[in-house]
């Protein structure tokens, strides 16, 4: 997936480069060879994107993706998300395996924990969240929206990333990392800062904790799963950028 992201980043950069080059030429600059090289690279990347679409069409993920695309789009629209973001999240969570179950007990396409499923079941009045894939998707997107509602001061990209981190690690971990960001006078509404300080929620960082919290430790306890959470957010965001181009 990182390779796919790199391709798209290059594609965007080259497009921008072509616009800048055209401006210089229109202002009297002469660099035809360079401009032609840029154009050729852009065309090559467009061809590569077509190849990626073809690869997806031949992969084992296309069938379940198309099967659940209508319900994903339905609830993504209802809760204000790009459906391709949810596709990226499902790919990261379960690879579209309906019976997926994590070592800690998360289940379904959206990998919801039983306790979370029970809460959502009461809120949405749906009964088979852990057994019915469509209900699992609906509940997962709803749960994602609940996280999203908390981070109203962040811009869209950061808000999504903070929501994903909360979905994966629990919102308390994000709150604690935001506390550290505030201590260092950094914006708590930027994923870059939260990402930086998540690893500082370990017990070995007790000296910092004494400065941040009156009780001398994170409000929601020590946290050691930061690598998984960071990878979770970054991977989904990377996949999302790819899917916006090929879906």
Q: What does the model show?
A:
The structure is a single chain. Helices cover 70% and strands 0% of the residues. It is mainly alpha-helical and 247 residues long. The protein has 3 domains: 2-58; 61-149, Lysozyme (Orthogonal Bundle); 151-225, no CATH class. Helix 6 crosses helix 7. The radius of gyration is 21 Å and the shape is globular. 32% of the residues are buried. The model is unreliable at 1-14 and 16-30 (pLDDT under 50).
Topology of helices and strands:
Layout: H1 2-26, H2 32-58, H3 62-78, H4 83-94, H5 114-124, H6 133-150, H7 156-169, H8 171-183, H9 191-197, H10 206-212, H11 226-246
Helix pairs in contact: 1-2, 1-11, 3-4, 3-6, 4-11, 5-6, 6-7, 7-8, 7-11, 8-9
Largest sheet: none
Extract low-pLDDT stretches: 1-14, 16-30
Q: Indicate the proportion of strand residues.
A: under 5%
Instruction: Supply the CATH class of the largest domain.
Output: Mainly Alpha
Total helices: the number is 11
- Tell me roughly what share of residues is in helical segments: 55-70%
Q: How far apart, in Å, are the first and last alpha carbons?
A: 15 Å
Strand elements, count: 0
User: What structural category arises from helix and sheet content?
Assistant: mainly alpha
Question: What's the number of structural domains?
Answer: 3
Computed over alpha carbons, the radius of gyration is 21 Å
Give the overall shape, derived from the CA principal axes: globular
Mean pLDDT: 88
What is the second-level CATH architecture of the largest domain?
Orthogonal Bundle
Order of helices and strands: HHHHHHHHHHH
What is CATH's topology name of the largest domain?
A: Lysozyme
């Amino acid at each position: 997936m990182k390779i796919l992201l790199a391709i798209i980043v290059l594609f965007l950069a080259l497009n921008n480069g072509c616009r800048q080059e055209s401006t210089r030429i229109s202002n009297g600059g002469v660099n035809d060879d360079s401009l032609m090289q840029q154009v050729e690279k852009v065309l090559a990347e467009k061809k590569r994107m077509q190849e990626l679409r073809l690869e997806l069409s031949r992969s084992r993920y296309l069938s379940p993706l198309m099967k659940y695309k209508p319900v994903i789009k339905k609830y993504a629209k209802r809760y204000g998300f790009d459906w391709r973001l949810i596709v990226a999240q499902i790919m990261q969570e379960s690879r579209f395996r309906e019976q997926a179950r994590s070592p800690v007990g998360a289940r379904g396409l959206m990998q919801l924990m039983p306790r979370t499923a029970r809460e959502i079941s009461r809120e949405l009045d749906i009964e088979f969240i852990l057994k019915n894939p469509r209900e699992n998707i609906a509940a997962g997107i709803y749960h994602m929206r609940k996280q999203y509602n908390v981070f109203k001061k962040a811009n869209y990209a950061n808000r999504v990333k903070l929501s994903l981190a909360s979905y994966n690690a629990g919102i308390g971990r994000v709150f604690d990392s935001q506390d550290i960001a505030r201590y260092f006078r950094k914006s708590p509404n930027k994923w870059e800062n939260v990402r930086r300080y998540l690893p500082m929620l370990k017990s070995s960082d007790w000296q910092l904790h004494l400065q941040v919290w009156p009780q001398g430790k994170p409000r929601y306890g020590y946290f050691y799963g930061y690598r998984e959470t960071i990878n979770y957010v970054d991977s989904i965001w990377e996949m999302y950028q790819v899917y916006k181009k090929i879906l």
